[in-house]
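Report of the visiting student (M.T.), summer placement. My assignment was to run the structure pipeline on a short list of targets and document each run. The first record concerns DUF4145 domain-containing protein.
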Amino acid sequence: MDDSFSFEGFFEGAKKAAYKAMDDHARGEYDEFALHAGVAIERLAKAVLYKLNPLYIASGKVHLSGQKARIYTITATEALSRLSSLNILKVDADLKLLIEQRNGTVHASVGDEAKTHIPTLAKAVGPMLKHLGISDHDFWDRWTSAVNVAVDRLRSEIERGVALRIKQARHIFDDRFKDLPDGVKEKLLQEHQPSSIVSVDTIAFTTDGSLNAVVGTTACPACGGRANLTLRPVTAADAADDFTASALECPLCRLRLTGSAEIRASGADVEKAIIPTSISVKQRSGSPNEITEFCSI
Ligand SMILES: [Zn+2]
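After the run finished, the structure tokens were exported:
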């Protein structure tokens, strides 16, 4: 392994990039923020992997020049995927988006979404520090309280917003039954309990045919009926055996939640979601990415 690699090198590099990211955020430069935040996460991920085993960060690509060999390290996405496989870090949709922004494939937003940027960085850094046994303050230093405030503020904003939408959904649901006989609502809810029967149009595949999302059902946090829960693979789609909840939609009360933070704040029990145990897909000839048949067992 290249002598220039060391745990300290990756760790100190991660801190430096994280501080730059915080400066960028303060100036409202969200593209720059995403770049530095992504670099901070990548370096910290490599510090963790390097500490476990220096070989974990080797990409397999070697450049030979004279007597010297240059060994390339894995990409940010690969580093996160390895940490996810080791159960050290969960890679949710927000973190995936941040890494895409860091890679320049997606531009960072300047609106509401920008509020979530610091919490996304903090949420990625936290479990890695925990694994290393290093305190938040030893990493964030003078930025510690600013990071905590951003995380708390976002959490309470999400909780307030979701609580309001749950109330609104309950009113909408109750209004549908106000002129109907007693017991109709209860009967409907009984008939619409979580089950493994889901519709085909919400199963999404990427262009290479790998699974991009799967829809399960869970009890709606507003009306208690059957809500559809979209789950996306945490790691690369073809190797995915771990899913994160990305959307909840209830056809009965029209409650709609997006992202794991909103779903968590709603109290929906994602762990108890029923997902199809087996999926078989028939593709229509001539349009390989269009799904025409789906069954769950
Ligand atoms: Zn509902």
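Residues 169, 220, 222-223, 225, 227, 250, 252-253, 255 surround zinc ion (CB under 6 Å). The longest strand covers residues 211-219. I thank the supervising group for their guidance throughout the placement.
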